[in-house]
Amino acid sequence: MSEIKSALELALQRTEGVKGDKRSLEMHESKQAGKSLVVKVLDEPGFDAGAKLAEWSGDKAKWARQGFLEALNMNIRLPNEEAEIERILRVKDGLAVIIKDSKRLNSLFEQLDQLLRQYLKNKNDMVERLREQFAGHLRRKEQELAEQTGRQVKMDPAQDPEFAQYLRQNMNHLQSQYAEVLKQVNDEIAKLYQKNPR
Fold first, then answer.
1. What is the CA radius of gyration of the chain?
2. Of 17, 56, 87, 102, most Cβ neighbours within 10 A?
3. Neighbours of 109 (CB within 10 A)
């Protein structure tokens, strides 16, 4: 029994200095609360995030705003389809709550709107161009399969592993180019927040 007690005493001695850091916990909770407001900003036009953020004071307010900013920035991304662009652009509504320089913010989001629409156009053009390039290749495959099976076969380029791989490579290249520009947008937003917070 004395061995167990000694082991327990040793464990308690080791963990004695480890106590719940109240400040870290408050920071985490405040950031999470700020982040949770972003969903409402994006999904509920007219939602008053400013009033919610004003409920905190001191460090909690600063942390909630940081969480709010981080979550807004995470929603600035490349869209898969045009319907997503409007939701992405609503990030500006949230940023307007915490950034004073509305002129610069509006200009930045006009550029972002153009960028996102250009990305979708380039993406769609690239897919169409690749489909055209692979059309002859697919016709040959369809003919080979028809000769082997004795039945007419119609293939979609998306079913062809070579096409899928080539498309994936080109898509990754396109996305990496635009991701660089999105990073610049996020950097500019961070600067605006640092210089002109509300």
1. 27
2. 56
3. 22
